[in-house]
Amino acid sequence: MRIILLSAVYVCSFFVAFSQQISPISPLPSKKQIQWQALEYYGFVHFNMNTFTNVEWGEGKESPSNFNPTALDCRQWARIAKAAGMKGLILTAKHHDGFALYPSKFTTHSVAKSPWKNGKGDVVKELAQACREYGLKLGIYLSPWDRFHPAYGTDDYNKIYAEMQKELLTQYGPIFEFWYDGANGEGPNGKKQVYDWPLFHSMVNKYQPNAVQFSDNGPDIRWVGNERGYNYETSWSPINRDEIYPGYPQFDRYKNGQENGSHWVAPEVDVSIRPGWYYHPKEDNKVKSPDSLMKIYVASVGRNANLLLNIPVDTRGLIHPNDSASMMGFAELRKKSLFNLLKPSSNKIQVSSTFNSTYTVKNLSDQDVSSAWAPQVNDSKPIVKINFTQSVLSNTLMLQEPIALGQRIKSFSVEIEAENGEKWLIKAKTIGNKRMLTFPERKVKHIRIILEEYRAQPLISNVALYRIISTRNESLYH
């Protein structure tokens, strides 16, 4: 009888605890999608045949003898990327011209035919080793378009591409991201290829199940819809994935994601530090400044996306000093700017209601994305108030949702009052993984965050206040 009673108590307590949890709302991110989103910032390395022919898109007719870097050093790439705060590097293992940076058995157009290291070199291998040394993750870009391969435009090419995937996925250690391009033009025989996307996706899932796959529609992460360095004010991670495909001509209709999308496919912002993706000497003085990169960060990571910053490695096989200097300046700005000004000793956070002891106001300031504050279900106008005992000079408010439970917030507003009594209102849409709202720099006295529309019971995991500055220690947001 005692055993039965104890069991009943256990079952009862289990259901009480379970009832205290807020149910997730679909679609939900997978574990690897959550881990990818946490990376926030990593690098793209465009270095290939185009580097030596000084073009953006090669034709596939280039001689392998063109590829001959004089001082290639992947350790330099990794060292700079690490110092810049990047979490990984994605390499262009093969671009549209078909030249492979590793000695593939499935093409004759590769480093094996080049004079570099007498045809014994392997850029992918060297970068994989450098990434391991510096604690970076390795990603692979393998363009499906191939303007060299004689099989392109036939059924055989899909199998060849899959075999090249297998080489890259099995010989170089863990891969965190596999990047497809949507470009699809004619091959050397004048034919276009009908890509076997299910086959390509299955190769990554089989050999690197923890890697996310990027394209216009994922399947795991998606293109943001531009290459200018920003995500949109409204950004849903859910999207109707099966309605689109890589190279979809009306992708603009899907650039914001969809509130009730069928799959979780969060956006990635890809942008180059220079005007071009490949190195061109004439662009040495056109490198984006640290200030510009900081604004890009806020408009990408600060709008529910990850930032993929491209670095065009030069003909020596090195990151140019101008690019490196800008990346270091950007890292310094993040260090100085992304410092939470909300301190328990100088402010008081209040909320309109609290769902229960699991979802309390303390979760808003613990910097833990897995915990959250939630209002009562019957709270028709959930509010978070921040009152400062001493005004704080700032220009950016950051909010996060616990995305493991789904994306919920449809719209919200922020009322800000400065020390001098000046007030202004910010109307905003989605939050997602992270949302940064900028405003004219002022000494802030009070902040009210009003949650207006939501798909399900709202949850906020973190709130932070920043003063984002320029290289001159001035506000970037006036």
From TrEMBL:
EC numbers, comma separated: 3.2.1.51
UniProt cross-references to Pfam families, sorted A to Z: Alpha_L_fucos, F5_F8_type_C
Residues in the signal sequence: 1-19
Keyword field contains Ribonucleoprotein: no
Family, per entry: Belongs to the glycosyl hydrolase 29 family.
InterPro entries: FA58C, FUC_metazoa-typ, Galactose-bd-like_sf, GH, Glyco_hydro_29, Glyco_hydro_29_N
Domain F5/8 type C span(s) in chain numbering: 349-453
Enzyme class: hydrolase
Function: Alpha-L-fucosidase is responsible for hydrolyzing the alpha-1,6-linked fucose joined to the reducing-end N-acetylglucosamine of the carbohydrate moieties of glycoproteins.
Glycoside hydrolase family 29 N-terminal domain span: 61-327
Keywords linked to the UniProt accession: Glycosidase, Hydrolase, Signal
UniProt name for this protein: alpha-L-fucosidase
